[in-house]
């Protein structure tokens, strides 16, 4: 969480940094700030609220300068206010720093510094780090670079930092451990950012810093890399494949809506080149070297958080059905602290849109220590999880900016379907006929999804009826049960309505007590092997005067008769229903949140990339 941006070059640094912060605002948006170098001093402006509040605040201030750092915050230590906003400064005001991460031993360090007379202005862990750097710089007469490096050796925790000093208009120092940081190399200019989105407009050449690396950047000497242990490293320059248009709203009112509508394309992009109907095969090139491990795996363990965890639950049904491998789906945050039993013949699959989620990253590090094979399913190319795993398949959904995950979910489910099919085929656990039929059906999903999106007006009307509800229930069975969880999560996170997802049959074991005429119950009731059962569950809701909004298969008769509202989706193989049925749930949440005047793209208290535990 938190986004950081820095610029050194000939441009107006404030403008580059502000634009970058707006791109990174999805990472945190409770306060923001900039430090701009000018004539042997630094102008600092900070403001509670969105980046726009900072822009308004700084509109009549001096924002000139060619070196600047900026930060958009998601609070961990201390309230979101102007004092706790970054950048923070050393006690003599000469060193300024922005930080993404958590300094875990900050209280010990703080006590030591306080005993030596340092006064703290904020409640943040970050201020400890900048005082520590200042202390080493002042007392040890070290260069700024070595002061930062030595200070980082005393720090336990996660950080991506960028540091500048009053004394040098040509120096940026950047370092990372467990929080992402990218350096952009332009023509006579340098950029640092939490991800490549603030950089892509200016250059495609980037260096992703590795854990424990520290960069010294100056116009005079270019980029020099070391470890914090003082070993020289050679920067590995990569070319970005991202396109600027992918980062814009492209005429949509919100990123979330754009991303919902992008799903026919993002699913297609995730499948492209990975299967052939004529040859009857699926090949995920990224995992080919580890295919045998998957085929012989005694079990699979999916580790993930939030929406990605829901994709893992769908994956459980897919792998057990198609490849006949037992699957466990774990919340990464629980798995990592449980002393889990992992064997060498286990395959651990980490699912993460950002590839930076701290708990998921920590979970795979544990699995790696215990010699499991690690596979990543990530959306962000070059992300920490994609680098930490032995192999993997990218989802190719394109940048997902809306905090509520939408297209990343369907892309993850697409990859899981292909992976299960590839392994099932090799193991012989799926018949040729079923395999080929599934492939044809999968290929047809993007077109079918376009039909689902045409239901938007109807979905908006239904949203209007229920947007004032205070509670909602989501029900599904089998492979659609994770969709109930996902639908409830989407509603909660962007509209702040309390919602719960349940396996439909579990309702009678408790939640049925909640049902009255005020309660909307969203049911995934497509025509599949549990159709009759879900019809009975709907009857149970109706008998208690609950309002049923059902997602049904095209041509359905029975549910249509009893539901208060229904949304039709095209018929498809029941294993592929999640790819279609999720979308009306996303749209429902979107419209309800909008009608409640909630910030759809940046819901309160959340951040896109959760890089803290
Ligand atoms: O980047 P990841 O997929 O690892 O993120 C996991 C969760 O933080 C994420 O899915 C979160 O739950 C979303 N806000 C859900 O919409």
Concise description?
The chain is of the alpha/beta class and 613 residues long. It has 19 helices and 27 strands. The protein has 3 domains: 3-246, Aminohydrolase, N-terminal nucleophile (Ntn) domain (Glutamine Phosphoribosylpyrophosphate, subunit 1, domain 1, 4-Layer Sandwich), CATH 3.60.20; 250-452, Rossmann fold; 454-607, Glucose-6-phosphate isomerase like protein, domain 1 (Rossmann fold).
How is this structure best described in words?
- The chain has 613 residues and is of the alpha/beta class.
- It folds into three domains: 3-246, Aminohydrolase, N-terminal nucleophile (Ntn) domain (Glutamine Phosphoribosylpyrophosphate, subunit 1, domain 1, 4-Layer Sandwich); 250-452, Glucose-6-phosphate isomerase like protein, domain 1 (Rossmann fold, 3-Layer(aba) Sandwich), CATH 3.40.50; 454-607, Glucose-6-phosphate isomerase like protein, domain 1 (Rossmann fold).
- The chain is built from 19 helices and 27 strands.
- The strands form five sheets. It has an eight-stranded antiparallel beta sheet, with helices on one face.
- The chain is globular and about 80 Å long.
- The termini are close together.
- 5-amino-5-deoxy-1-O-phosphono-D-mannitol (M6R) binds next to helix 9 and helix 16.
